[in-house]
Structure to design on (270 residues):
């Protein structure tokens, strides 16, 4: 965004966020893995004056300096949002991309009464990834995850074999290498996944909340996305068809681009 990021203190940490607009209706924007609040810059000039967009740099991302160890809870996120928005009485709109979509789903699970609607872009959290679960939710799995991030050769060998056997497609293979080839990137992957491990939305509770509070959910996917596909959205929609709409754009996983910005802004404002 063209605006200068702002910061607030939270416990021992410093949280950076971007804010644009002056409207009474707050949009809480949560970015994807390895990105920051500036990822939403493409929307800056497209939202009506009725809105204020707040895009938070999550722990170990962007300019946020997280000093609470490898622990970040839904309660922490909620307190940060409430502090930045001065405990507004207006209902929020949620905007989440990829990893941020998973965190947005968790907010809807715990605090549904505070949200007017949600626009989720290729959201993680609509299906349960067994590797993510083992790596973050079990002690042995997390220790193994940490070791593999420091000694990646066996992982790379297994990935090469799996790709040759067509156990996963080339796009996923390339996506994994993008985040695993560099030692610092692997270290960051361990730290980020472990810190955000508590964000595991319960679909049964989530769907009940969507029905009870009548929260419209707009899911947007990329037609050529091989990481988070629209099929997860259609599976999630079962039982809450009245409240969930699904769209596919002519894009891959990276939906926060200028060519998609108008459509995303329209989904937020309508």
């Amino acid at each position: 965004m063209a605006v200068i990021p702002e910061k607030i203190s939270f416990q021992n940490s410093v949280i950076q966020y971007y804010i644009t607009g002056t409207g009474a209706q707050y949009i809480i924007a949560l970015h994807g893995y390895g990105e920051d609040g500036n990822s939403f810059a493409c929307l800056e000039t497209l939202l009506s004056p009725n809105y204020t967009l707040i895009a938070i740099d999550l722990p170990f991302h962007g300019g946020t300096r997280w000093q609470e160890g490898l622990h970040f809870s839904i309660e922490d996120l909620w307190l940060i949002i409430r502090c930045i928005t001065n405990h507004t009485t207006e209902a929020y709109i949620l905007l989440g991309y990829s990893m941020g979509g998973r965190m947005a789903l968790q907010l809807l699970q715990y605090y549904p009464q505070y949200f007017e609607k949600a626009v989720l872009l290729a959201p993680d959290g609509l299906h349960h990834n067994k590797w993510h679960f083992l790596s973050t939710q079990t002690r042995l799995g997390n220790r193994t995850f940490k070791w593999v991030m420091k000694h990646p050769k066996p992982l790379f060998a297994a990935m090469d074999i799996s790709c040759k056997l067509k156990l996963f497609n080339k796009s996923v293979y390339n996506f994994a290498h993008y985040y695993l080839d560099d030692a610092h990137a692997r270290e960051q992957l361990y730290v980020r996944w472990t810190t955000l491990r508590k964000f595991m939305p319960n679909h049964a509770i989530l769907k009940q909340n969507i029905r009870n509070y009548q929260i419209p959910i707009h899911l947007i996917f990329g037609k050529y996305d091989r990481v988070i596909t629209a099929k997860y959205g259609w599976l999630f929609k079962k039982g809450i068809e009245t409240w969930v709409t699904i769209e596919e754009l002519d894009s891959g996983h990276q939906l926060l681009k200028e060519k998609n910005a108008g459509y995303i802004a329209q989904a937020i404002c309508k």
